[in-house]
Amino acid sequence: MSPEFRGSFVLDFSVSPPIFVESEPKTRRFRFGVFQLDALSGELYKHGTRVKLQDQPFHVLVMLLERPGEVVSREELRRSVWDHDTYVDFDHSLNISINKLREALGDSAATPRFIETLPRRGYRFIAPVGAENPAPEQISPVSAGAGVSLTTSSDARTPQTGQELGASAPGLRQTVDSHDAGLRSDASPRYRARVLLAAATAAVVVAVLGGWLWRGYAGGNSSSKNRVMLAVLPFEDLAPDQHDQYLIAGLHDEMIAQLGRLNPQRLGVIARTSVEQYAHQRKTLDQIGRELHVDYVLEGTVRSVEGRVRITAVLIRVSDQTQMWVETYEPQMHDILTLQEDVARQVAAALSVEFLPENEQKLRLSTTANAEAYEAYLKGRFLWYQETKQSLEDSIVQFQKAIALDPNYAPAYVGLADAYNVLGGYGFVSPQEAFPKGKEAAAKALELAPGLSDAYNSMAFVAFYYDWNWAESDELFKKALALNPNNQVAHEFYSEFLHAMGRLDEAQVENRIAQELDPLSGWTRDDLGWILLSRRRPEAAVAEFQKALTLTKFPQAHLSLAVAYIRTGRYQDALSETRKAEELGGEETRVLEVRGSAQALSGDLAGAQAIVDQLRVGSTKGRASPYSVALIYTAMGKKAEALDWLEKAYKEKDPWIVWIRVLVEWDSLRSEPRFNNLLRSMNL
Q1: Count of beta carbons in the 10 Å neighbourhood of residue 166
Q2: Could you give the CA distance from residue 261 to residue 452 in angstroms, rounded to a whole number?
Q3: Which end of the chain is more exposed for a tag (fewer CB within 10 A), N or C?
Q4: Which range has the worst mean pLDDT, 60-74, 195-209, 334-348, 478-492?
């Protein structure tokens, strides 16, 4: 049982002193639809029942009703309703006021019946308005800028959240800087609380944004494409010291993952490898939209001080750069062990979101009640993405720590599985040492969370590269993608699996989906290049590998390009690419494998033999792959030796041997009985 939620989320849009309207309104009473408004008494009625509306939204509505059919500019609203010194906070407050009006009137920014948004200009009241003009009376004060707060707690009333805004603001950074001015900048004495609060806040942003998106779909506000595409940009850390990189990165990853699970059939979310490239770039939204092919962008800032986290998130429509939704959260919890799903349930329940039961279950699978466990998990993922031998080993330490603190924390087991799988896949440790541990961890994750897409993907990876159980691998990949069609990594690995099985058309379809979800990833282009090599189109593969390198500078792409150059007889170019891969820290065994093959095929048999000798005695960093030795022997024309080392690779469960069915490099051995026996042994 999780502890009872007793915290609150506070939206503080700054408090300004009241001002007074200096001239009386043109009209005092208005009728529109089923509503009546009395400007003198400050009351709004629906079917004769009073509708509660705060002062700022009320007086914005009065101005719009006074000029039906006309555009009322944002500047006019600022001068009339807000304090004359209010500039930075004004846009935020006006957006909130318009949203409150729409909620009170049951209106929508997408399909307005009353208030129409004119992007970057202002607003227009579009419904018919009836008016009365009674005798002048005393003018009532306008309490402009009065503190607006949203409280969500176990005994609170239903909050009004999920702002759906219709005009652009001067800039998120400027707004947040002003809004955060009251926060102290000294170091936090309650760091553990801050970590869990951040997790809870991320869940709330997901729940509220999910509600907004769902309402958009229900109201017909969807793209002409099959799915609306969203990019979640890296959140900017506004803390003075910025020492919590893994915390911010973890929040960003969690936001992408949870939004990707909300409604995958209608909402596509761009993968982290594409959006992380915008962390330190100042590109326009137009540029980002074109490069990522997205309809919406979610950006935000994070500031954490004294055990408190303040997150501001803004959803922007790329086509006209209109802010559709903005929210600032500052959670305060008395009990730091409150689960993030409890917080998400409070907000999502208030929104009556129809995907709530399923979404709550998915949130429950990816959360922990232990702040230290969550912190260790974030550190583990931060290290895992670096993909060096040391960082992977360090990530295992962090995932194991998270599991020790919370043995039921399923994502920590998935992280552990992924770390072991990469260690084995890259040859940093032996397959027999790494993959069984990865399989065990993934199985435990599925035992705890049977609906966790990432866990199925990890299991499928082991079934593919280690167990060589093709039917099971196929089934597991399909299960991962059925649970979450936005799982870009699963699409990428499934494409590799289909490629290895010789199902090239299907592999290319999966690769295309992976590229749509990760358009700026060099890895997906690299995968496509290898599919083209198997289609015996090396020149087209060269073009794809070159595209991969324009997107991401990574050693593997240089080695892939070297292989393509070998296929076209450009051996010196191939050797040049192996040197570039080596300079970038490419895995030594793979560098030597490609270099030795290029030397052998160019006639430098002595150079190729020297590399074979180096690999045979294991004088390399990491594991010397027998598969790599076999490839060089094949290039040298030594079939018997090549088959000897292929059989050794089979016995050692070398993960790269899964490619022998499709790679052109093995063509010279396909008529050999030993080679065909090996294929049969692997059910290929």
Answers
A1: 23
A2: 10
A3: N
A4: 334-348
